[in-house]
Amino acid sequence: MTGIAKSKKVAIVRCERTEESCPGTSCLTSFSERKHTFKDYDENAQLVGFFSCGACPGRRIFRLIRNLKEETGIDVIHVASCILKETPFPKCLHKKDIIKSIQNMGVEVVLGSDAKWEKEIELKKKEGKLEDYESIDELLDGAGHW
After folding, report:
1. Which pTM value belongs to this model?
2. Cα diameter, the chain
3. pLDDT in tens, 82-139
4. Is 140 within 8 Å of 79 (Cβ atoms)?
């Protein structure tokens, strides 16, 4: 298969509580238009899953990722902005555990799924609270919850 790029198989995990008010439009549009955290995927990348965490504390993560691995050979999972952001969504107390669970199953994790996460990062940088969101645990630890 020399010279042939492997098509990435991508999924998005979202917060179950936000399903009541969010149809997933911005996540799905960002993927289909290859914007934001999806900008580096080529046209061969496939969205093979869009699912919720299963409610606190992310109780469906293991089963769904296991199924995605068996059925699709999933390469990467994007953790949706609704799990990561501090406002206006319900704050996720389990985001760090959800991320670690995905990584422990051998699947790459990308933080964010649309412009909302990028705006959150820029806001934190302007406030001087964040240099590099991947190396700072403040957002992932759920600082300031409840």
Report:
1. 0.83
2. 53
3. 888 877 767 788 888 899 999 999 999 999 999 888 888 888 788 877 655 555 555 5
4. no
Q: In the beta sheet, which residues pair with residue 76?
A: 10, 108
| The one-letter amino acid at 105 | M
Domain containing 104: what range?
9-126
User: Which residues are within 8 A (CB) of 82 and not within 5 positions of it... i.e. 6 or more apart?
Assistant: 14, 15, 18, 22, 89, 92, 116
Tell me the β-bridge partners of 49.
11
Number of structural domains found in the chain: 1
Residue 33 falls inside a structural domain: yes
* CA–CA gap between residue 109 and residue 139 (Å, rounded): 15
User: What tens digit of pLDDT does each residue of 11-45 get?
Assistant: 999 999 888 888 999 999 999 999 999 999 999 99
